[in-house]
Amino acid sequence: MDHGTVNVMFVVVARGDGATAHAVLKGQGWLDKRVEPIEVSEETIGFPVVFSVPPEALASAMKVPFEVVERAAVIRSPVDPHERLNAVVADWVSGVAPEHQAVLHHLPVKWEKLGGLVLFPNEAMSHASWDGVRQHEHAPSLWKRMAHALQADALGVQHPIASDTLRSSQVEMLLGSSNVRFLDHGVTFAFDAAKVMFSSGNNTERRRIGGIDMTGETVVDAYAGVGYYTLPMLVRSRADRVHACELNPDSVNGLLQGAELNGVADRLTVHEGDNAETLVKLRGVADRCHLGLLPSSEAVWEACLLALKPSGGTLHVHMNVEEERLDSWCSATLQRFRNLVEHHAMAFEVTVSHLEKVKWFAPRVRHVVLDLRFRPEAPLTGERPPPPAPSPLP
Ligand SMILES: C[S@@+](CC[C@H](N)C(=O)[O-])C[C@H]1O[C@@H](n2cnc3c(N)ncnc32)[C@H](O)[C@@H]1O
Question: From the CB of 245, is ligand 1 less than 6 Å away?
Fold first, then answer.
């Protein structure tokens, strides 16, 4: 992708002096990285330099004979997407809307890419200078150029996720469609990003869960969403069946689309509705339950424990916990589950098998996943393993 032709200043030296000249110009930070060096003649080469180089400083720094020429040159596309984004916005402002210079000081520095859709965080375009740009009659051409610079075909701004139970996404679309489809660790996801959220930040956890061998297992996902964990568990972990509980019909749509696209729909059972009701019907069926809701999944701790088969299994318990409370939270949670086991006379031995620190949710607050293992206690009579054979006498 090129950004057109501009006049550029070149420092021209003999080819034999090229390496020395390049080292000086680079060392001083004077090279214009947007432009390739040029061959001025068979014997000489020209290095592009920024216009702000003071001639006296250039003369005293150069260790070899040189001359300065000005030539039209093609600006090459920067490798860094931030630079590409900055370049297209600067170009649009200078060509179409010089009155909106101020946005150049408030350019987005981060974004999330979901397939062909780039989602800017709310704060990225919340400065007042963007209001005028949004209303500009040529704004659509800017959105197109920004999308092109980021190798996308749709652009949106993510307003805060609704704090309702559905965790609904609120996206202002600037360009293109909010229907996305993309591959993440070998799993295809497809959903309407304007209606549901996708926690890209949990990718390490998706990889970890998708890396566990679940062959032969029946799994319950209490908060399935569009299949963040359900799909990796079906596709990569090879779970026999996942029972996916989900309240939001838009998420259920995405989940079903994803299941079709990954060819795992026949091993997925969706339980649409409030898991307070749907989990009741899943008593005693699971080898594993996934409890993925933040800030806390406590609402389903008991129901997920009851969903385990008498042969036991694993619970993956998500929670936001203050860093300094991690140890005490783990012990308290373990004890809570031991109490629940006792209360329901389930005869399980409960142990912590792993604590995964997924990401920082806020300063000093971590999103963690506690893996708890439930094993049937050894039977008290009858089936005890035989005592070891006595060792032979010397
Ligand atoms: C945070 S999202 C899913 C997140 C996903 N597990 C992750 O970590 O990326 C939580 C999902 O749970 C669903 N949900 C919330 N409360 C629910 C409930 N009581 N019953 C069923 N689904 C629920 C929401 O609709 C949403 O899709």
Answer: yes
111 Cβ contact list (under 8 Å, min separation 6):
118, 119, 120, 121, 124, 150
* 176/144 Cα distance (integer angstroms): 9
| Cα separation, 199 vs 357, whole angstroms | 15
Asked if 294 and 362 touch (Cβ cutoff 8 Å), the reply is no
d(CA 262, CA 250): 19
Higher pLDDT pick, 6 / 191:
191
Atom number of ligand 1 nearest to Cα 290: 6
Does residue 393 surpass a pLDDT of 50? no
- Dist. CA 129–CA 114, nearest whole Å: 26
pLDDT > 90 in the chain, percent: 75
The two counts, helices (H) then strands (E), for the chain are 11, 17
Determine the pLDDT at residue 3.
53
- Domains of the chain (ranges; CATH) run 5-74 (3.30.70.2580), 81-177 (no CATH), 198-376 (3.40.50.150)
Per-residue model confidence (pLDDT) at position 75: 78
Q: Which two tokens stand for residue 58?
A: 């250039």
pTM score, two decimals? 0.76
Using CA atoms, how far apart are residues 306 and 316, in angstroms rounded to an integer? 14
Helix (H) or strand (E) holding 134: helix 129-135
Does ligand 1 have an atom closer than 6 angstroms to the CB of 191?
no
Q: What is the mean pLDDT of residues 265-274?
A: 98
> From the CA of 299, how far away is ligand 1's center (Å)?
12
Name which residue sits closest to atom 9 of ligand 1, judged by CA.
Answer: 199
Q: Is 166 in the pocket of ligand 1 (CB under 6 A)?
A: yes
CA of 118 to the centre of ligand 1 (A): 23
Interval between CA 2 and ligand 1 midpoint (Å):
44
Mean pLDDT of all residues in the chain?
A: 91
CA of 184 to the centre of ligand 1 (A): 19
